[in-house]
Specification:
- This protein is an all-alpha fold.
- The longest helix is centred in the C-terminal third of the chain and has 26 residues.
- The model has no long low-confidence stretch (mean pLDDT 85).
């Protein structure tokens, strides 16, 4: 690897780690960079997933204060994320590489609409005493599982999808929801990464470089992301989501 290649991949990892912690969709930065340097699509996807796992752990640590009191919820929904991540990782090695390409922009667009309408939807649910987070409720766990399948398969904008789902289901501050999102996305990436290590070819050099950049980026994202006003954070989610849709439709 040339010095220029190392620098580009490291910067991509830094940016991806920051964006994943604050919003999501960092894969849309690192994955194209690996493709540009000649890695095959599946190898790039696998190596990118493995490389971003340490960044996910770093992001969870950075948001540890916001996770206080969410252990039971994290275990319950985290189980669904793990199952979804395994399913998606297996599908990546079985289905054609373009299987989700056409539908992903639709997923992201729907998530953005839910994000914008989230305060209004939360008031509507509260007024009708509808609790999507109660014990025994199945819609939220199923949606988290489905997002985990997508995350294990590709992962771009997985965080945006999770924020939209959790934002509707959980009557709490958006920053606390973002902290939980980091846990769930991290579990998906982690279990998918472990599976890929044993079942697929990992390009370890770029994966390690991405990991180093993502760890630092996640700390930056946690430090400055939690300072954002919820309305500003919601606006960033929408902007990043629109950029993700444009990127997916033009590649």
């Amino acid at each position: 690897m040339s010095v220029g290649e190392i620098i580009c991949i490291a910067l991509a990892g830094l940016a991806a780690g920051t964006i994943n912690t604050v919003v999501g969709s960092g894969t849309l930065i690192t994955f194209p960079v690996l493709l540009a340097f000649g890695y095959a699509p599946v190898t790039a996807n696998v190596s990118n997933t493995v490389g971003l796992v340490p960044g996910s752990v770093s992001g969870v640590f950075g948001y540890r204060r916001e996770l206080a009191g969410q252990r039971e919820r994290a275990v319950r929904l985290g189980t669904m994320s793990l199952l979804g991540g395994v399913t998606g990782a297996v599908l990546l090695l079985v289905l054609p590489a373009s299987a989700f390409k056409d539908i992903v922009p639709v997923f992201i667009a729907l998530a953005l609409v839910l994000t914008v309408l989230q305060p209004r939807l939360n008031r509507w649910l509260s007024a009708r005493e509808i609790d999507l987070d109660r014990r025994g409720a199945i819609l939220t766990p199923i949606a988290v599982y489905a997002t985990g399948v997508y995350g294990g398969y590709f992962g771009a904008a997985q965080g945006i999808l999770l924020l939209a789902i959790l934002g509707m289901a959980l009557p709490q501050d958006l920053h606390r929801t973002n902290a939980l999102k980091n846990v769930l996305a991290g579990l998906v990436n982690g279990v998918a990464g472990v599976y890929f290590i044993f079942a697929a070819h990992v390009a370890w050099a770029p994966a390690a470089i991405i990991a180093g950049g993502a760890i630092l980026g996640a700390q930056l994202g946690a430090r400055y992301g939690r300072r954002l006003d919820p309305a500003a954070l919601r606006a960033i989610i929408v902007l990043v989501g629109i950029a993700a849709i444009v990127r997916l439709l033009t590649t």
